Every structure is written in C-alpha cells, then in structure tokens.
Amino acid sequence: NTSGSKGITNTLTPGSSEISAALGSIKSSKVILKVTPAQLISIAVTPINPSVAEGLIRQFKATGTYTDHSVQDVTALATWSSSNPRKAMVNNVTGSVTTVATGNTNIKATIDSISGSSVLNVTPALLTSIEITPTINSITHGLTKQFKATGIFSDKSTQNLTQLATWISSDPSKIEIENTSGKKGIATASKLGSSNIKAVYKFIQSSPIPITVTDLKLKSITISPSSSSIAKGLTQQFKAIGTFIDGSEQEIRNLVTWYSSKSDVAPINNATNEEGLATALSIGSSDIYAIYNSISSNKINFNVSAATLDSIKINPVNNNIAKGLTQQYTALGVYTDSTIQDISDSVTWSSSNSSSISISNSTETKGKATALQIGNSKITATYNSISENIDITVSAATLSSISISPINTNINTTVSKQFFAVGTYSDGTKADLTSSVTWSSSNQSQAK
Predict the structure, then answer these.
(1) Where is the signal peptide, in residue numbers (predicted)?
(2) Of 279, 274, 236, 280, nearest to 253 (Cα)?
C-alpha cells in the first residue's frame, strides 16, 4: 500500500492468501493468490575447473540457486555424469569422482532440465608414500643388508626407488647406509646399538625402521650350489649362507674368504662385488669352499668340462645378392672358452624363402647360396639347438659381360658396317645393348 507500489504483491512462503481492494465503503471481490515453492533456476558445480592427480578421489558439490534468490546444496538431488569416463568416473548419486587417466573431462550435475558443470584436469599420478623392505628388526654386527625402497603412487602403481631415494640412518656410527650410485640402500652393521633407517624421495619420507645391531655368533657356513659342472670358459656364482647360534640365517658371500683347491682349473674371486665367482679355466675338477673367522664351509666339487658351442656367426654378412649370382657362406662357432672354429660343414643351412634364394647342404657345395628370384629371405645356420641367421635381399640381375658382332669383319673402304652389342646378365639372360653402349674405335683414321 506504499505510494508508487500499491497493488504489488511479494510472495513470502508457500501457501494461499485472499487479495481484495477497497475505496471508501466500496470493496472488490476477493482473489485467491496461491504461492508455490521457489523454482530452481541454475546449478553451480564446485570445485571450479580443478586439477587432480591420476588415481585420486575428489568430491564435487552442486549448489542450486532458486527463484527466491535462495541457494541450497543439491549434491544428493542431482544426477552426476562425466563426459569422458576413461579419464574420470563419477558416482551419479554422490558426485564423488575417481580419476583414471591423464586428460580433461566435464563433470556435470543435472536436475530436470537444469545443469551445471566443471572441467576436471587429470594430471599424472603423484608419489604418495614410500615403503622399505625387508622390515627386519636386527642385523648381526659386521654384516650387511640390502634394503629396497618402493614408491606408491596416487594411481596405486608402484616403482622401485632404491637407487633414486636418499637413504638416512639416524645413527651412522651404529648402522651406515650407502648412498653411492649402484649401492644405495646397503646397510652395514658397524657397532652394537640401534638406529632408524628411512628413505626420502621428492620430499616424501618412508616410515623409519628401527634396527638393532646384535652380537650373534656364527655357527656354520653352507655354500651352494651343492654340485656344479660347467663348460670351460663359463663362470659359476657361489653363495654362502651363515647360520647363527639363534638359528637365523643370512647371506655372507661378501664376508667370507673363498678358496679353490686347484686355481689352475677353477680360480675363485674375492674382489669386491665379485666374491664367490668361479671361472672354469681348464678341464678338470677343484674343491670350492669358504672360511670366515676360522669357520669353514662345506666343500663343493667343481667340475670343468670341455668348452661347448655358445653361438654361431655367419660370414660374410652380405645382405644383397644380384639375381643369378651365388655366394659362399661360412659358419664360425664361438665356444664358451672364447675360441672360434669353422663349423660350416657341421651346421644345417636353410633359407626362409627358397623360391627367392636357395642354399646347399650337399657335401661339396655346403653353404653355397643361389639367388633365384627378386625378393627377401633369411639364411640360417643351425647346430644342435644353436642357430644364427642373416637377412638377404635378392636384387635385379646385373650386367656380367658384353659381346659384339660380327667378329673380325673385313669391309671395303668407304663402306659402312653395322655392329651389334649384346649384354649377358648375372641370371643368364641376354639383351640388345646396341643403342645403350658407348662405341669406340682404336684407330679413328681407319674406322670410326
């Protein structure tokens, strides 16, 4: 009833009301005004255009704006969808989004015909944690232990971070841990006591592992394999397992001193990182054993047999043969002791495409290949289970010779004579080359 706005009705709450007008003693009829609930006019989806790492979960929210300017959380009322489920999947009831692969997708919330959306950018997976294994609680004084760091990413994938992480010991005087490239994660029990071991990579730290350096006494040493026989020229890696008085066992290959009863047959290495590596030097046998602090291991009889074929090399490595030509191939056997021997007559030769190139296994012509047709083939030499092959291409026939006719012709002065040139090719075919060749005369004053 305010001057200038008379007759304007403001709806406040849902319901009904009778509207009438009066002037003096004259009243209008009554009009019933029904007020309905406010209507949804828009939806906003948040967070707005976020970036989320692959494998993570993000909750989206839908906020509705109504005709009465009120706002309301309509997350549970909306139907949710993802424009690219291969990038991110959304729970169509709750709005919870799980990222699947890097890329973009639209996350949409819809109620009736009203919708709102947000662009989700899925970024590469993030490192979320680091685990150290093995989770042991003690190392015997003087021994070493290799630890491994495994990175766990937001997409649940894992990666070996042992050589990438920085290793930390809370008390290096008790346990030293390597950070040298190629040796990272190797802990050495230097002094009785305890220390915490952890790995750090890109600001992510593993949980520390408390380790105690104990003073257990070694009871026995067992080396393996229990028996060994290898060909001359090969090597055999031996292991040493120490058994302690509490029954625990540990690899001590790098702590023992290795011995061979016959170093001329099979010398064994004590160099760093090569401990226990025996080399089959000559045919015969030798006893291999290890000693640590006056404790001797079992002895293993190590037999060295004659060198065996290790690989085959084919010569020449000629990858192209003209049609009609032949090529003699030889096979060289490389043995375990690095010696090389011609085994051309012992191998079986074969061609993968015998219509293009054939190769002989006959006694007199073994290894001789003949180029039959333009094409490709593999030539293989096989002996027992060892084989080698080379790729061969047969190219077009090449010109081998030219003959001219007629031969030794006598003609009168000022008379012309036609000569012809015929080419013979590597595949035996002939062709008239009269107009293709360059002609010459040894005496231009007599004939040209």
Answers:
(1) none
(2) 274
Q: ∠ at Cα 326 (322, 330), nearest 5°?
A: 120
The C-alpha atoms of residue 299 and residue 313 are separated, in whole angstroms, by 39
Rounded average pLDDT over 116-127: 95
Q: Which of 88, 87, 56 is nearest to 155 (CA)?
A: 56
Q: Cα-atom radius of gyration of the chain, to the nearest Å?
A: 45
pLDDT digits (tens, 9 = 90+) for 348-406: 999 999 999 999 999 889 999 999 999 999 999 999 999 999 999 999 888 889 998 88
According to DSSP, the residues that pair with 297 across neighbouring strands are 221
**Is the pLDDT at 127 greater than 90, yes or no?**
yes
d(CA 45, CA 403): 90
Positive or negative CA dihedral for 371, 372, 378, 381? negative
78 burial class (0-12, 13-18, 19+ CB within 10 angstroms)? buried
Question: What is the DSSP secondary structure assignment for residue 75, as one 8-state letter?
Answer: T
* Encoded amino acid at 147, one letter: F
pTM: 0.50
CA neighbor of 233 nearest in space, from 277, 281, 269: 281
Distance, in Å, from the CA atom of 297 to the CA atom of 276, rounded to the nearest integer, reads 13
**Structural domains of the chain in order of their starting residue, each with its CATH number:** 1-124 (2.60.40.1080), 127-214 (2.60.40.1080), 218-305 (2.60.40.1080), 309-395 (2.60.40.1080), 399-448 (no CATH)
The three-point CA angle 429-435-438 to 5° equals: 100
CB-CB contact of 367 with 359 (8 Å): yes
Choose between 64 and 427: higher pLDDT.
64
129-187: pLDDT as tens digits: 999 999 988 888 888 899 999 999 998 899 999 999 999 999 999 999 999 999 999 99
Give SS3 for 264: coil
